[in-house]
Amino acid sequence: MDAEKLRELDRRHLWHPYTAAAAAVAAHPVTRAEGVRLTLADGRELIDGMSSWWSAIHGYGHPRLDAAVRDQLGDMAHVMFGGLTHEPAVRLARRLAEMTGLPKVFLADSGSVAVEVAIKMAVQATGKSRLLTVKGGYHGDTFGAMSVCDPVNGMHHLFGGVLPAHVFADRPPADYGLRPGAPSASASRRRPAGPEISGGSSEPAIPGVSAEPAIPDEAYLRHLDVMVAQHAGELAAIIVEPVVQGAGGMRFYHPAYLRRLRELADEHGILLIADEIATAFGRTGEMFGCDHAGVRPDIMCVGKALTGGYLTMAAALCTEEVAERIGVLMHGPTFMANPLAAAVADASLTLLGERPWQEEVKRIEAALAEGLAPAAGAPGVRDVRVLGAIGVVETAEPVDVEKMQNVVMAHGVWLRPFGSLLYTMPPYCTGPGDLAAITGAMTAAVATLSP
């Protein structure tokens, strides 16, 4: 079909995410994805600055991952996981257990489902039904996951009357990562090293970029102490996104707050759930977001980049102790542990372990910080921040998505703004020229904002 026919049928039949059934803005048909580029039906090529919603960390059409799917397809595409098992699932579970230190692995269909399973694990293991989280968070769009998203400023306020009432601490102060365009050009990056939150190594400064202070907000730490103590008797678990609050606002917070939550969970006999759907597998500069604070959760959710963007799969992992307390876990997706997804996930994690992903992410971080510096202080811009392979421009007012998308597409880049955020999370293989194109498109889009 030609591009116009595709758009016409898409409008008639398809319902896209976070839109009305009759979307006001037409979707752009894609005919091919290779490397870091998307080819549209009208022939245009766009650099994908989104990694297909943060999942395609190796880019598109990687020969190793293509081969993993083809090889597995020669044996079987799927088999039920009730009473049966298979090598791809076993290999993947072993690898995840070794990477996380969490030996029990429940393979789920998506990130939201992994969060649902994690909540079920906590409820069954403790006999309690409430959770504590922080405002500004996002954990998915299914009902249990929605209940621990931001209740006021999140995407699910329409369902507030039917969701369980959980406990929400204040948002963590956004005091981590790099600030492009900050006045101090000589400040160096400081990250916590090992158990010492206030320690860490200094890295070469990026001109025009300052690091946030390595000293956490003591008032906020006391706030966490009070909130957990007040509700400890009714809490099954604390659930947070480690270090990065993703779709709830793309905010980066100090690892000390995560460490304090781990300490409070231990002190009060509460489980800690780390929602690593967006942060796992290197995106923040560490393999897992929890690594910034040197903590291990009782339950962890992973997804998105797990299969390298090839097939939908996620996982909820837990300790032996939690698994023993649960007994029979009452959850069983039809396509649980799909062999194709498990095979490509194992291949993707193998590839990640072989490639210099840490150097790649550092290179991306430096390029994003330098390239986005001109956006800092521009009219209509509230903040510019970078952490690992994540670059964010936060605007003072919600953006006109179609207008901003047209600007970045005119610069040969694909981004998907939302709310007051224009951001990028590019594949790790994105080269210097393409990174410059991404940041150039973002600064050009920012230049269209009204003062």
Task: Characterise the protein shown here.
34% of the residues lie in helices and 18% in strands. It has 451 residues and is of the alpha/beta class. The protein has a 7-stranded mixed beta sheet, with helices on both faces. A 4-stranded mixed beta sheet has the order 1-2-3-19. It has a 3-stranded antiparallel beta sheet with strand order 17-18-20. β5, α6 and β6 (167-169) form a beta-alpha-beta unit. The longest helix is centred in the N-terminal third of the chain and has 16 residues, at 111-126. The two termini are 43 Å apart. It catalyses: (8S)-8-amino-7-oxononanoate + S-adenosyl-L-methionine = S-adenosyl-4-methylsulfanyl-2-oxobutanoate + (7R,8S)-7,8-diammoniononanoate.
Which properties best describe this structure?
451 residues; 7-stranded mixed sheet; 13 helices; 20 strands; globular; PyrdxlP-dep_Trfase_small; Aminotrans_3; aminotransferase; Adenosylmethionine-8-amino-7-oxononanoate aminotransferase; S-adenosyl-L-methionine
**What helical percentage do the residues reach?**
25-40%
Structural class: alpha/beta
Strand content: 15-25%
Q: Provide a count of the helices.
A: 13
Sheet with most strands = 7 strands, mixed
Pathway: Cofactor biosynthesis; biotin biosynthesis; 7,8-diaminononanoate from 8-amino-7-oxononanoate (SAM route): step 1/1
Function: Catalyzes the transfer of the alpha-amino group from S-adenosyl-L-methionine (SAM) to 7-keto-8-aminopelargonic acid (KAPA) to form 7,8-diaminopelargonic acid (DAPA). It is the only aminotransferase known to utilize SAM as an amino donor.
Cofactor: pyridoxal 5'-phosphate
Family: Belongs to the class-III pyridoxal-phosphate-dependent aminotransferase family. BioA subfamily.
